[in-house]
Amino acid sequence: MPRANMDGDRQFSTESLLTARQRAAELVQSPLVRRRAAITGGALFILLAGFFVMDRGAYVSTSDARIAADMIAVSTDISGRITSVAVSEGDRVQGGDVIYTIDDREAAYMLAQFEAEANRLRAEIGREEARAGFETSKAGSQVAARKAGTRSASASAEAARSNLETARQEHERTRNLYEQGRIAKSTYDQAKNALDTAQQDLLRAQADRESAAAEQRTASITGQEVRLIDYDLSVLQAELERAQARVDAQKVVLEQHTIRAPIDGVVDELFYDAGEHSLRGFRVALIHDPDSVWVSANIKETDIRHIAIGAKVRVRADSHPSKALTGRVSRIREATLSEAAMMPNPNANGVFTKITQRIKVRIDLEPSDVHLRTGTMVAVRIRKSPPDTAAPPAAT
């Protein structure tokens, strides 16, 4: 195309643009157009203001809210050197999974010592029980034998007494006959010797009976020794129970050298590395259950009267702004955040500035497919409740 034509077309386009701008300016300056624009703007402002007022009248909103969970601080009951770390931060664990192991050699040696002591006492108890059984059988046999000996000695004594009586009668008859001269003196002497022998036999039988009775009493005393063995057995049994209690307690101490996860969850933080020395009572890890989270919202004290347990809540997570989340108010604290603070801020200079206090509200979320991390920020809109339901019940 020739250059002259191109310059002409460009000049024509510029003139057309200027003309269109002038016409637009004239239209804007027209009273009718300005009136319509003002009415449209006013209507839009009224509509937005009405929506804002309705929203404020129906909901309590705040951005001072975040995802919360029960943070479990895992601590150790013993002090010792960390020998291994079984998990890493961010790992999912099941309840009972090993997190740390602490050097347990000393505890294992102590457990072996206590178990050896318990086994020794069991052996002693077995020995004493066997001895008691033997002594019982022996004492029973001896008592039976001594009773039989006593009965035999008593029978012999009775027989000797009967023989003595017979010899005495024979002696009296022989003596009468000898005095009458009807028998020889040798016959009389035999009768007298028989009487003396019968008397000696009776004395011997009585002595045997007394000896048998004494042996029977001795056998009974031997039976009493079995009772003493039973007493010793009861003492050994008590010592065994104490030793077994030490064994059980040491097993607990040995188990404490293995630190396990108390719940199913995620390891948020580990405070020790392998080779470091842990201290009793100090926390070693933080764990929380990501499937059990809620919203912790801080509500102004001027709005808390509009909130009741069970109120519906709309939640918008900053990490998932396009996802619609819902929930319900499940708990309302009875104290403000400042009252529960570890470091209260007293008014020491005498200058008072009134600050609206905040009250913590727990919101339980309804099930969703959104993965929420503890500590992330959310915005909540809590449906207002009637005053009669929002107010706490009067104390009785």
Task: Report the CATH C-level class of the domain at 107-255.
Answer: Mainly Alpha
Main sheet summary: 6 strands, antiparallel, barrel
**What is the distance, rounded to the nearest whole angstrom, between the alpha carbons of the first and last residues?**
99 Å
* Beta-strand percent range: 15-25%
Shape: rod-shaped
What is the CATH architecture annotation of the domain at 107-255? Orthogonal Bundle
Radius of gyration, Cα only, in angstroms?
Answer: 55 Å
Sheet/helix structural class: alpha+beta
What is the helix/strand order? HHEEEEEHHEEEEEEEEEH
Helicity, as a percent range: 40-55%
How many E-type strands? 14
**How many helices?**
5
In CATH, the homologous superfamily of the domain at 107-255 goes by the name Helix Hairpins
Stretches with pLDDT under 50, minimum 5 residues: 1-12
Q: Give me the side-by-side strand order of the main sheet.
A: 1-10-13-12-11-14
Determine the oligomeric state from the structure. Answer: single chain
Topology, please?
Blueprint: H1 3-28, H2 31-58, E1 59-69, E2 72-75, E3 80-85, E4 92-93, E5 98-102, H3 105-179, H4 185-255, E6 258-260, E7 265-270, E8 277-278, E9 283-288, E10 293-300, E11 312-317, E12 320-336, E13 358-365, E14 377-383, H5 387-390
Antiparallel strand pairs: 1-10, 1-14, 2-9, 3-5, 3-8, 4-7, 5-6, 7-9, 10-13, 11-12, 11-14, 12-13
